[in-house]
Amino acid sequence: MPEGHTVHRIAIDHSKVLRGKHVAVSSPQGRFAADAALVDGARLTRIEAYGKHLFYLWGNGLVGHVHLGLFGKFRVHRGGAPDDAPTVRMRLAVAKATVDLTGPTDCAIGTSEDRDRILQRLGPDPLRDDAQPHLAYEAIARRVAPIGQLLLEQKVMSGVGNVYRAEALFVNGIHPSRSGREITPETFEALWSTIVAMLRQGVADDRIVTLDRDEFDVSDGTPRRGDTTYVYHRDLCLRCGAPILTVDLGGRPCYYCPVCQPR
């Protein structure tokens, strides 16, 4: 599932192509056809990212919602789009480009009230200027659950996935099994700042690089999994060389260094 930086980058890239234009909306697959008809030809005024959710705000007042989930993908075609598109759930087309969406968990047209209801169940998004980090801390500090589990709960903090939780916890020396109640305000502030910085770098790079670039040389080539992280998908800790361990939290293995992140 894409982490928050990917969704925010999609919003930026799609805005360059579609924002302010009248967009032909269709559903080659057919499953989105009724909703597509509600906004076909309407002007797309804005694209908004919140955590792992995308909202397409249309000039007629309706709002499109996309959640990619595990299998959702966008593809941008410059010029003409393929005629054979049996798996494309939603197609957004303008004169010089077409955006195709396949395999999303959710793709629907609703109202601004529908958007608000989705946001009400989400925690603050570290990439948004209107984020209120104290809400995330309050949700963490009252829970006995492990911090490594809480960071994956989108109602606690939006947009953090398996890679960023492991890397941010490592940078701050926090064992992923530490209880939320044990996270002090000072520790949370440092953790939040790390997550913000990592996600922003991910948006800028359009890939995940969590290493301190003053400390490590990150090549411009296509990295292999684990080449640009401290502990995630590594066998040995990049700093101390200790064997990396994992603990299952939130249904996903969380990578950590037992030396740099003691209990």
Plain-language structure description:
This protein is an alpha+beta fold and about 260 residues long. The protein has two domains: about 5-120, N-terminal domain of MutM-like DNA repair proteins; about 135-255, Helicase, Ruva Protein, domain 3, CATH 1.10.8. Helices cover about 30% and strands about 20% of the residues. The strands form three sheets. A four-stranded antiparallel beta sheet has the order 1-6-7-5. It has a four-stranded antiparallel beta sheet with strand order 2-3-4-8, sandwiched between helices. The protein has a two-stranded antiparallel sheet with strand order 9-10. Strand 3 (about 55-60) and strand 4 form a beta hairpin. Helix 1 (about 5-20) packs across helix 7 and helix 6 (about 160-170) crosses helix 7 (about 185-205). The longest helix is centred in the C-terminal third of the chain and has 21 residues, at about 185-205. The radius of gyration is 20 Å and the shape is elongated.
